[in-house]
Give the backbone structure.
Amino acid sequence: MSCKSCNSGDGKAGGCRMNGTCNKSGCNKLEVYDWLANIELPNGQKPYGIVEVRFKNSRKDFYRNAADKQLQVGDVVVVDAIKGYDIGVVSVCGELAKIQVAKKRKNFKPSEAKKIIRLAEQKDIDLWIKARDKEKDLMYKSRTLALNLNLEMKISDVEYQGDLSKATFYYTAEGRVDFRQLIKDMASEFRIRIEMKQIGARQESARLGGIGSCGRELCCSTWLSDFRSVSTSAARYQQLSLNPQKLAGQCGKLKCCLNYELDMYLEGIKEFPKTDIKLKTQKGNAFHVKTDVFKKTMWYSYPGESELFSMTPTRVKEIIEMNRKGKIPANLADFEIQKEFAKDEEVGYSNVVGQDSVSRFENKFKKKKKRKKYRGKNQNKSN
């Protein structure tokens, strides 16, 4: 889904080049669909005075519409900051903003929220775009300053304030970093106020974005807002191979999508017996190989053999119960799921063009030898 400013007339994507600050819906990260936009308010009721404003990447905050202006999603507004002002895009307003406030801020007081100053003018938008263009060079210079001080940190993103008076540097580090000298060097080099914010690896991927191994955009940069802890047990329950390269995402941590279907697997595993119990038979002790939760099938095998025996959890429980009572069955083949093989149907067709021949293309590419014409000696003498 893209906005009109990202499309050209010939159907090709032109790109608005707003670097994540497009003021049209459809291009923003963590975009919210206002499903309450067409609902009319009762007579005499004023619209909700709190508006959610989105800044660069996924940073959002709530602001107070003190002047009761008619704001819509996508409007570029100038908002109050601690020192100076900032520029952002309205992402949620109206009754949906009330639901977002109740969901994200439990002890939120509207009177303490910062206010929206005005709608952005053209000069404000030009200054805003100029600030976005400067951020990349500023990040490279700050990385050079950090390397000169031998600091073990990675500056991943920079965000200018709307009035170009302040820059926020987002960095990742394994431990605490003493960046007091770095801030002094940055302040003397860039001549602006500096703020440092440490973020995690998942927050870094959410801000930068990218494409996952599934071929889609990263969940953390499009719709996922809460990061839950992911453990390797989630991969074990889903019968996934514990390969760090396959289980890790763009952030280097375990993929957040491992938790999506975990509840379904945990619910289905309740019907299965423990996999560490060996099945005793007269042929030998069979061990568990793998489990398919949704097909409700378990595979067992004997040591030193490659043949697998597929059984339902009910049949496996029967064998375990028999072993507890001292009964030992002859073989697992008696409990195996009956495999039904489909009979090959004879296809009635006649080989008209030689399509069954493996070498049917070889004769086509052979060059025909041209015979040389030799004139007889008698003809030459007669001439």
Summary: The two ends are 86 Å apart (CA to CA). The CA atoms of residues 230 and 254 lie 6 Å apart. Residues 1-5, 11-15, 17-21 have pLDDT under 50 and may be disordered.
